[in-house]
Amino acid sequence: MIYRHFIAPPRAFTQFSHDLIRHPRLSSDAVRLLTWQLSLPDGAREPLSRTAERARIGACAFTRAKRQLKEEGFVHERRVQGPGGRWVTQQLVSNVPLSAAEAAKILARMPVHVPDAPASPQLVPSARVPATGAPTPPPTDGHPEKDPGENTSHRPAEPDATVTSPEAAEASDIPEAARALVAALPHLSPDLRRIPRGMHDELARLVFRWLAAGHTPAAVRTHVLRGLPDDGTPVHRPGGLLRYLLRDVPPTPDSDTTPTAERPAPARPSSRLAALRECEGDHVQATLFRPTGDETLCSRCLGSPAPSHPGAPAPAGPGRGRHGR
Questions:
Q1: Which of 250, 191, 186, 175 is nearest to 219 (CA)?
Q2: Measured between alpha carbons, how far is 139 from 145 in angstroms, rounded to an integer?
Q3: Which of 1, 28, 161, 184 has the least C-beta neighbours within 10 A?
C-alpha cells in the first residue's frame, strides 16, 4: 500500500502534461532534460548541453536522451548562418511533439542570436602594405627570342625495368620446394591455419636454409609439430611461432660429430605423438599412423586394410595431424 502527500507550490512551478512525464519511450534522463529546459524563464538561451551539465547528466546519457527527444519530436535543431558569416545552431524545445515542418515554421520566426565574440582575424581585412617601387605590368612580349632546340623540362627519369628491388630478387631465389612446404604447413595443425600471407616469403627463406643444410621436408614438419603446444594453449600468432621455430638450423644427424655422451637428450614428443610415425609415402600433407612393426608406410600406401586390433586409431588423413580434431 502506497500513500501520497502533495502540497501545491505557491511560486516557481511549471505545469507539465502527464503524458510527457509518463512517456513510455523517454528515459528518466530525457524527461529530466526536457522538464528542466521547459522550466527555464522566458528569454533564457541555455543550450541543452549546459542543461545536462547542471542536471548532472553524463555525456553518454545526454547523447541518448537528446536522441530520444529528437525522435519523439520534442527537440528540433538546425544550423543557420548569422550576421558576419558565422554559423549558429538553433535548438527548439517544445512541451508537445512537433513535426519537422511545424518546427521549421517556428524557427523561421525566431531571431538569430550570435554570441558576443570577436570576429576571426581571417574575416577582418588587413591594411594594405604597398610593395617597393612603382607597379609594373607583367611582360607580354610573346615567345622567347630563340628556340633552345632541346627539351628543357625537368621530368624525372623513368625507372629502369631491368633493375629489380633486393626484396624481389631475394624472393625470386626461393626454390619452389620451400614455398610448397610453407604452403602445406597450415594443414599440419589447426593452430597453423592463420599464417599471414605476407610472411610466406620470409618463412620460405627459413625453410630453404633447413633444406640447404641437408634436412628433409619430413624433418622440418616433425620439428614444427614438436614445437607446438600440446596442452591446449591457443596459438594467437602462428607466423611468429614458425619464425621462432625455424630461425635456428640444427646440424643434420649425419654431420654431427659431437660424442654421443655429450649430446643433449632429444626433446620428448607428447604422449599422443610418442606412438605415431609419419608415413614416408606420397601424400599431399603429413600423415601419421600407428605402426605395428618397423614399417615406414601407412596402410593406404601399402594397399592393405588398417589393423583391426582393439584400440587402434584410424590413420590420420587430410586435416588430421598432431592436433586433428
A1: 250
A2: 14
A3: 1
Check: CB of residue 271 under 8 Å from CB of residue 223.
Answer: no
Dist CA 67 CA 43 (whole Å): 24
145, 120 Cβ separation under 8 angstroms: no
Give per-residue pLDDT as tens, 151-205.
666 666 665 544 444 454 455 677 888 888 888 888 888 888 888 888 888 888 8
**pTM of the predicted model, to two decimals?**
0.36
- 82, 112 Cβ separation under 8 angstroms: yes
Cβ(164)–Cβ(173) under 8 Å? no
Q: Provide the 10 A C-beta neighbour count for residue 147.
A: 7
Beta bridge partner(s), residue 288:
278
Q: What is the SS3 string spanning the chain?
A: CCCCCCCCCCCCCCCCCHHHHCCCCCCHHHHHHHHHHHCCCCCCCCCHHHHHHHCCCCHHHHHHHHHHHHHHCCEEEEEEECHHHCEEEEEEECCCCCCHHHHHHHHHCCCCCCCCCCCCCCCCCCCCCCCCCCCCCCCCCCCCCCCCCCCCCCCCCCCCCCCCCHHHHHHHCCCHHHHHHHHHHHHCCHHHCCCCHHHHHHHHHHHHHHHHCCCCHHHHHHHHHHHCCCCCCCCCCHHHHHHHHHCCCCCCCCCCCCCHHHCCCCCCCCHHHHCCEECCCCCCCCCEECCCCCCCCCHHHHCCCCCCCCCCCCCCCCCCCCCCC
Handedness of CA 191, 192, 194, 195 (dihedral sign): positive
Length of the chain: 325
